[in-house]
Design goal:
Elements lengths: L1 H50 L1 H10 L6 H9 L4 H9 L3 E3 L1 H7 L12 E4 L4 E5 L9 H17 L2 H17 L4 H13 L4 H12 L5 H7 L6 H63 L2 H53 L10
Parallel strand pairs: 1-3
Antiparallel strand pairs: 2-3
Helix pairs in contact: 2-4, 6-9, 6-11, 7-9, 8-9, 11-12
Length: 353
Amino acid sequence: MLLKIVNLRMSQLPNLAFRTKPKQLNNSGSGRVNLLVLLLIFLAVFSLIAFNRQNIFDWWKLRGYQPSTAVAGIADQDTMTPYARKIFYVNHPIINDKTTFVKVCPNNGGEQTIVLGCYHSNQAGINLLNVTDTRLNGVEQVTAAHEMLHAAYDRLSSSEKKNVDNLLTNYYENGLKDPRILATIAAYKKSEPKDVVNEMHSVFGTEVANLPPTLEQYYAKYFTNRQAVIALAGAYESEFTSRQATVSADDTKLVSLKSQIDALEEDLKNRQSVISSKQQDLNNLRNSGDFAAYNAAVNPYNALIDAYNYEITRVQGLVDQYNSLLEARNAVALEENQLVNDLNASNLSPINK
């Protein structure tokens, strides 16, 4: 009886051992599942970080950042959308005086253009020249919008950039008619041939009033009222164009006046020659005693003198008019030079012309 009991217990042992093995397998499977879960979580976090890399970068750059009143005011005047304002602020825009500006925004290309602002690639900063001349109100705002668009272009994906480049190039080749903008792009082709489309992206968005609907829709992501920026650009640009038009018109008048003066002076020389000849005739008549002929010739001679003197008066009037117009023309040209000098950080002394 005791033996049976022992046998019974012995027969149960394998069953007990067998029941332990599945439990061990379950524990091992659970570990692999946990590892898989951790791996999936890691991949999800990594993907989330990669997908939101730009947002994380922006958050890092904007933490604790507070724009100055002047910078915030520029963003307001440019009607920047929240997205554009974020791009602008991520670059910590700074308004510099001339001495500082020329150091942080050197004209490395040496192009014959005035640098008013610069964007440092990879969202490394935006610098603007401080323009204090009230006649040039709007320069800082347009420049800020221009540089912000450079930073925005820098953020475009390859597919987005390809699409935008096609829109810009198509408009440039088929729709752009403004001579000034065409000249601006031509200058960029010489100074920055590798970044022409990038410059188109900024110039068209801030200086061209009428764009194709596709481009207007694109720029709407940056400006709630793009025409406000265009108006600012037009206001300060008119300070130059109006003076240039005045100088050009005055130059045309001066050429005409100079031509009239030269013609009259040549005529005066001919008249003077005739008068000298007639005077000699009178002297000969008087010396010969032919007083009748002498007296008859006096009135025609005096008429020649009167006409000569009248023409001298005309010439003097035209000369006075020429000199007065030249003085006014030079005053306007000087104003234009002063405006250019106010924008020229690389030239700290007045421009001479």
